[in-house]
Amino acid sequence: MAQIQVENLSKSYRIAARDPGLAGAVRGLFHRRTREIAALSDVSFSLERGELLGFIGPNGAGKSTTIKILSGILRPSSGRCEVDGRVPWEQRIAHVARIGVVFGQRTQLWWDLPIIESFELLRDIYRVDGAKFGRTKDRLVEMLKIAPLLDTPLRQLSLGQRMRCEIAAALLHSPSILFLDEPTIGLDAVSKLALRDFVKDLNRAEGVTVILTTHDMHDIEALARRVIIIGNGRLLRDSSFESMRNEVLGERRLIVDFATDVGEVAVEGASIRARDGRTIEFAFDPARTAAHTLIANIARAHDVVDIRVDDPKIEEVIARFYTLHGAVES
Amino acid sequence: MNGFALYWRFIAVSVRSQMLYPTAFVLRFSSQFFVTIIEFGGVWVLFARFGHVRGWTFAQVALFYAIASIAFAIADGLSRGFDTVGPLFIKTGNFDRILLRPRSSALQITGQDFALTSAGRLVQGLAAFAVAIDLLKPDWGVAEFMLLAWAVAGGASLFISLKMLEGVLAFWTTEALEVANTLTYGGEAAAQYPLDIYTAWFRKLMTYFVPIGCSLYFPVALVLGHDAPGVPPWLAVLAPATGFAFLGVAAAVWRLGIRYYTSTGS
Amino acid sequence: MTTLALPYLSILRARFSLMLQYRTAAWAGVATQFWFGAIRVMTLVAFYAGTGRQPLNLAQVVTYIWLGQAFLALLPWAADAEIAANVESGNVGYERLRPVDTYFLWFARALAWRVANTCLRAGPVFVLAALVLPLTAMRDWSWRMPAGLDAAVLFLVSIALSALLSSAMTVLLNIVVTAVRTPRAAGFAMGFVNLFSGLVIPLALFPSWAQTFLLWQPFAGLADIPYRIYFGALSGAQAAEGITAQIVWVVLLVLLGQWWLDRVLSRIDMQGS
User: Which pTM was predicted?
Assistant: First the structure.
């Protein structure tokens, strides 16, 4: 039985429309027009215990609506959703006791309190047994390397330190599902890598189900075995990251540094994309021409210093996918 | 940890955070005391000119004034958080965080902001009480003081309920609306004078709809030996209980508000 | 002249537009003002029942209260919220970077805020208290018309001076807040303003030995003077005295504000903020 079961989930909002200008503002005093927008339409998927799901899509696609529904703080307009056999928004209190949520841009710690005291307050809020809390806390402190930060008030921590504490805070009550909403936003490279390692370990070693939303495709690449792409409120794709990448990746790049000035180079199965002095960038379709054949052909005909095979940037892959599926309004 | 204990935990945290900024605290405390004591001074000015108001003397009104201020100050201190539901929680999306914790949302909202500064109003109320006692020189026994304390308790829980309803309003408006002040601050203002100086419809409104009269006017009038017409002493003694009943009503409306919030997710 | 005033006019327009967006807040504000007015009217009606002659009669006092409610937003209760926020975040030094005179920018902003807020609220309170109330059983509680055409004209002059006076005081509060670097520092102002503008109790009802002092202290010009002119309790030479007091205070406070702001800002510049 899947841990999370989502069927035909839809959500629409009513929003106020305002006429522009001063006259419009005056009219708005007496009469307010509203229109309905569909934030989510007919989304279905299921998730097994222990999966690590990347949840991506352009801004306003419906990611946070889905997360809010799954975490029990928003009621859908229609459709079903069960998490661990509970309907999140119907049994909210019982449900939220079993999940952990980290918002990259919001804190759940107390601004003026030393971290350890925030942790202890969370212990009382979540009714965690004292001995169990001690063990969980010690393990998290060690894994996230936050021991030196515990006595410092939140307001004095750097963004990276803060995020590590946030994640520990979200896990103190040993939730079975962890929602990470943009956890790496604004972090430096080292903090990002450390965070990814931790999430990977948590998922592998402890079997915590992780749902990750992010705009940083390197997070997805590093962590997610499965990716759901959402656009305009619809589920566009639910598959492994690799298969999505191969589908979208129609072509790859071959970059060759020649030893001498070469004039026109004709290579079968590849076309010239760009040239910069003695460096030429070729594009080829891996399905028709294998990279090693191409490399062998070039090396045989020319004096070559270096050859590299390159993929388009991961951001480009995603951007192309969004455009392909009309996920971004133009 | 049960709800009550958790609430005190929250308050302890809130007090400590406020004490990190002692200058701000002293300024707010003393300016609140100053502003409210000036209002009480205004009452004195009126009596200096008019002598009495419908048979009530300055000393008697000072007692009404004191009990209303004290009840309101206590309510304000305990539930200031409801004032900022709109700007601090709904608008910013921080209310989501409240809902993501497996505890009562009202408890979390009030616990996070224990308004230490309402001590300014409390001190004003106590000063007015001292003035009343000094002028009345009453021969009260334990029963009278108990009744006044009971009135303060009923009045405070009524004001807490009103502030809770004010907080609920923010689920719909996302703004902190002044209109909510009509019942909270307006209720306090009305209760600072004996209810019988007002016109009939207003008296009824303040007795049956928003039972400020029940919690504050009836018992204080009884202590002053001034029976409200048609209200036997036993009823005046029981009346402050309505303040607690009102709290139940407010809590039910609060739950409706949460339901609305989780449907719109503003 | 027009180009000089342009930035200040855009500030005024932007404020209006911003406030009108909060339509529920606007209606709620009106309802609140009306309600508090009603409670105060009832209290004073009770005091007036069965007393002899007073410096103001009941109709005048009731009108005084409604004027107070209608023009409540004109009172300088607090520093400009934006400047207070800048003080808290330490960005107040940037005020200097704008290519306009800081004093007049602050003054225009205060004036725009007070006037816009007042315009939005005064009308509805007037409609309810002066036009609707007389049609109900609560006729005695209604806002009466001005004592005469001359009183009406003088009132307009005097209330305009109140707006200027209030803005000058708001800028002073901004300066205090900037100087001591705590937005809360302005909290005390509310007590003085309420008491000495006549908002708590009309100044005429204070003991008679205090009257000359009360008329000439700066806060009277915020409310008491224009209101008394409105229903003719100050007329002729007395009205002239009141308006003179207002003008004197506007000039003094603007000069004080300019001098003080200059000192405070140059100190901030030196500290590098």
Answer: 0.84
